[in-house]
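Field notebook, page 471. I keep forgetting to write these up properly, so this time I am using the form the group agreed on. The chain and the ligand, magnesium ion, are recorded exactly as supplied. Prediction of the bound pose follows.
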Amino acid sequence: MAKPKILVIDDDAGIRESLKMTLEYDGYDVIGAATGPEGLNLVERDAPDLVLLDVKMPGMDGFDVMSRLRSMQSSLPIVMISAHGTGMTGADAIKKGAVDFIDKPLSTDRVLVTVKNVLEQERLRDENRTLKKAVEVRHQMIGESSLLKQVTAAISRAAPTNATVLITGESGVGKELVARTIHGNSKRTRERFIQVNCAAIPEELIESELFGHEKGSFTGATEKQIGKFEQADRGTIFLDEVGDMSPKTQAKVLRVLQEGEVERIGSARTIKVDVRVIAATNKNLEEEIERGHFREDLYFRLAVIPIYVPPLRERPEDIALLVRHFMETISRDSNVRPKRIAPAALDALQRYRWKGNIRELRNTVERLIIMSAGDTIEVADLPDSVKAPGNAATQPVPLKSAFAEGSGETKADAKVGTLREFKDNAERAFLVGKLRENGWNISKTAEAIDTPRSNLYKKLEQYQISQESDG
Ligand SMILES: Nc1ncnc2c1ncn2[C@@H]1O[C@H](COP(=O)(O)OP(=O)(O)OP(=O)(O)O)[C@@H](O)[C@H]1O
Ligand SMILES: [Mg+2]
């Protein structure tokens, strides 16, 4: 790390010299200026980390210099050196914008301690700023397409209100990001954002997850549990995959929305909660209602403000921006030297139909950054499915291939080389078949094939299976 650089502005050459000796001995770089204007020049030229500034100087005094510095570069820390008898107090200096002050005659220890503390504070503040920026950037919604602009406009309208929002769209389009952005731009932003993935929580646990339970209220309830609705009090609850809630849970959630209160399992007491609800689903809830899988009254409660996030293939203009954004953030996060992408490779990424949407694009870029050997990502580095021209719309395996009814030999056999590929294809085809049989109801399908819903959910993501892709 470079040595911290300290600028001493003092008209007294003796003081400049002694400060220089003391501080250099302690490992700092020191530059000196005899007048205010000279000091201001050095700030511009040498970008010091800290300024030690004498109050009483002929011409431009310390306070003039400080106000000039503040208008130039607001965050540079300034420590005032006050001569005895100037009448200036430490409080004056700090009120005018200094971070600290030291009295003359200068004590070596005092100088060193002050400088060390101020620089440490600055370092922490910098670190905080960087972290905050990184978080902000990670949660930024990237894209310039008119379709995405419609989404961001809806977010801006929804955010300041307390209205319930229902976000719909295919898997990986950014529904969670939309939910977080709404919360982040709402009056509740300092309160909690509690996320519940309704599909990943086993049926028998979801009620106590959402509403909590009292100790001993059922077998296994060895401790009291505070539910997510209570945890989200004054904040936002995000009910993700809300289309996968069982009818019983739907009824209870509806009650919370109507009454604004929850009841822990095993307790007759009602607890008032002030929670904003944002829900998301990749299902078509209107269809689910027709099938009798989703309550219409709950649907209307949730869809006060509906926001549909369109799939990436309908807004290919966003792809280049997203690729650049992911290349920057991912290489920074994984400490990889930033890479470039060849125009032809970017072209292929733009032509490809991203069935897994932005999540798939992000994963692909991440793999490319880590796996490609050179400094530039070339077409050759791309996954075969993306690279192959004409294959753009059929990825990874046509849904209707393996296990097609009536065909003795599956089409999948012909396309695969390894056992692993064969197994994956077979598993995928099996799951799609079962999902169709069960009207794409996740809970029912999971039950039918005797696997936890969470596992089924994972598989859907792994194979990028969705009802929409089952065309
Ligand atoms: N417009 C965008 N700009 C930048 N990143 C985005 C954008 N949209 C989505 N992402 C990123 O893509 C990934 C997937 O988004 P997200 O998890 O919000 O999708 P989702 O719709 O909730 O998916 P699923 O239905 O599978 O849960 C996340 O890493 C998210 O940060
Ligand atoms: Mg999600």
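OBSERVATIONS:
- The pocket of magnesium ion (ligand 2) is lined by residues 175-176, 240 (CB under 6 Å).
- The longest helix spans residues 108-138.
FOLLOW-UP: compare against the apo run.
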